Amino acid sequence: MGNYKNFDSALIHGGISSDPYTGSVNVPIYQTSTFQQRVPGDYKYEYSRTKNPTREALEALITELDGGTHGFAFASGMAAITAVLSLFSQGDKILISNNVYGGTYRVLDKVFNHFGLTYRMVDTSDLTAVEEAITEDVKAVLVESPANPLLTITDLKGVGEIAHRHNLLYIVDNTFMSPYLQKPLELGADVVIYSATKYLGGHSDLVAGLVSVKDDKLAERIAFIQNSTGGVQQPFDSFLLIRGIKTLAVRMERHIENATAVAKHLQEHPAVKKVYFPGLPTAQGYEIQKAQAKGPGAMISFELEEGHDTNKFFESLQMIQLAESLGGVESLVCHPASMTHAAIPYETRQKVGITDGLIRFSVGIENIDDILQDLDLAIKESGK
Fold first, then answer.
1. Block means of pLDDT (10 residues each) for the chain, length 384 residues?
2. What's the CA gap between 81 and 174, in Å, rounded?
3. Sign of the C-alpha dihedral, residues 147, 150, 156, 160?
């Protein structure tokens, strides 16, 4: 910990923020696969899959930002999730939020299922439903809050109390919030996962995953899996991610300001049927979100009224781009049913509310007038 008290400063100076070898104010990109040893076994770094100084600085940074004891950097958010799921054994079951990210569902349903690791989808916003879903074979609970893409809010502390009462590992995907807005380890989580591609990177120029924990033995197991399976973050992308994190505070404030304005605008728009945004007082879990996070984030989902064509809406956008991913400085929209959540069966999507008319909007940091103008034009064209 440096000579600072505030989180905004930790984003810039946290972890390992300079180079002890040269005095560089930024940790260099140690673009090497291996390291020289004086004699066999006498080394600080051995091989970059195992440990690399640039990745080490990134891992120290997320550890400090999350208030953990250990951090791990992976080549993608899915590599991070895969490593955490590799903690479990054949016959184990994991409870997951019922509108979880489609990639999480896919890797459980199509990959880990072959090895005997199963799952059950649960409305984790309902603490009674979580409790009732726990059977002898359940070993963990994996929660997203706000969840992707319906922004469902889960009482993180409440789920944590249930998980620990039953000796379950409690995992929270904190991608939508980032540590700037929400600290799951302080709310009872054992493991926090990020697709750092999103808000932490912030510029849509890298793919990365991060994990933080607060238990030494759990950290040893994850470190072994990370090294053994090899899905590690590379030095250059580690450098880019550290650079992106430095501006997280200023970016998130603008993201939230814009998203709040967009949500209110859509809520009042006659062509919009429903808006999902945790910052609206009418939103599900509004009070819980206020209690456990510093802000609502900048993700919005909405549905247009009957008679509006979503494809025409996407085609009519001029500045806002149709693309997967989120959390970059630019505004992005996507169609969850055919893009991010296409791996989830149609019946399941319908049951949890991921309809074919649902639009997910990652609100960027452009001028708010330009964002609203683009939205209004596209909505108008979609009704013709």
1. 85 94 94 96 95 98 98 98 98 95 94 97 97 98 95 97 98 98 98 98 98 98 98 98 98 98 98 97 97 98 95 97 97 90 77 84 98 98 94
2. 12
3. negative
- 3-state secondary structure (DSSP) of residue 53: helix
Q: Per CATH, which fold does 249-382 belong to?
A: Aspartate Aminotransferase, domain 1 (3.90.1150)
Fold exhibited by the domain 7-246: Aspartate Aminotransferase; domain 2 (3.40.640)
The active-site residue, picked from 66, 155, 173, 237, is 173
Q: In what order do the strands lie in the sheet with 70-74?
A: 70-74, 209-213, 191-195, 169-173, 138-144, 93-97, 118-122
5 is annotated as an active-site residue = no
Tell me the domain boundaries of the chain. Answer: 7-246, 249-382
Q: Please give the structure tokens belonging to residue 117.
A: 């690791």
The pTM for the full model equals 0.95
49 is an active site residue: yes
Tokens standing for 35? 């390291």
Query: Among 198, 246, 251, 360, which one carries the catalytic annotation?
Result: 198
Of the listed 49, 243, 274, 380, which one is catalytic? 49
H/E segment holding residue 263 = helix 248-268
Cross-strand partners of 193: 173, 211
d(CA 14, CA 239): 14
Q: Is 351 a catalytic residue?
A: no
Per DSSP, the chain holds a count of helices (H) and strands (E) of 14, 12
* CB burial of residue 383 (10 Å; 0-12, 13-18, 19+): middle
The order of strands in the sheet holding 272-276 is 272-276, 299-304, 358-362, 332-334, 321-322
Tokens standing for residue 216: 């030494």
- Active-site residue, 243 included: no
| Residue (of 311, 353, 306, 318) closest to 335 by Cα position | 311
Amino acid at 225: I
